[in-house]
Write a structure and sequence with these properties.
Strand order of the largest sheet: 3-4-5-9-8-7-6
CATH architecture: 2-Layer Sandwich
CATH superfamily: Bira Bifunctional Protein, Domain 2
CATH class: Alpha Beta
Strand content: 25-35%
Order of helices and strands: EEEHEEHHEEEEHHEEEEE
CATH topology: BirA Bifunctional Protein, domain 2
Number of helices: 5
Largest sheet: 7 strands, mixed
Radius of gyration: 17 Å
Amino acid sequence: MTVPSATDPARLVLPPAFTGLRAPATDDAFARACALAADEGGDAAGTLVLVERADILDLAVVLAPEEPLASARRALLLGMVALVDAVGTHGPPEMPITLLWPDELRFDGARLGGGRLGWPRDSAEDAVPDWLVFSAMLLVSKPHGDDPGLTPDSTALDEEGFGPGIRLALVESFARNLMKAFATWAEDGFDGIAARYLAHLPAAVGARAEIDRNGDAVLEHDGAVERLPLAPCLTTPVWRDPATRAVRL
């Protein structure tokens, strides 16, 4: 699947399972994909929405879940693994990529972006939802003229040495990694995906850690057990600034 883009001169090449959909810069990939899924249900599965903004990588993909909502929410963690793998493939070598539970991605200690998960709000916890949407957003560049030193808690791809045209390369890599991760889940269960996620979670360092069936992280330090719940964290992503509809600077 190739998708021409007015923002990037190259063409976006997606795996056959995906259908690309361009959206204008004023749009929001998450909202567009959720609306599309609500209208078309399972027919929208595999649609990847890419917003045409040069300063932000804003994408969302419609998924067709096969598990009840309570366990299908683990797709958020899987999507974050695919996003980490994409950034790691194209970023400068040996730079740490970490995750702030459950949906914020940090590059060399600074916020680069994050992920979101959407589903039909009338879905019961024990019922398979008609659709899911995983959305990801990364800062490509900060507002023109801003001094990076004024926003040290965040970073952007251009600040970290990612090359030109990185938006398309990351989208293509993310799509490939997402397919591989779902294949792994289907064939081998979720434990392998969980281990890859936890490897980037500083809170899990030195702990006996696992992801339970509901997507909660269970961390055991010296006999003390800490549970990081997933579902309550998905309502309002802390990495996102509602005023700008972008990554918090």
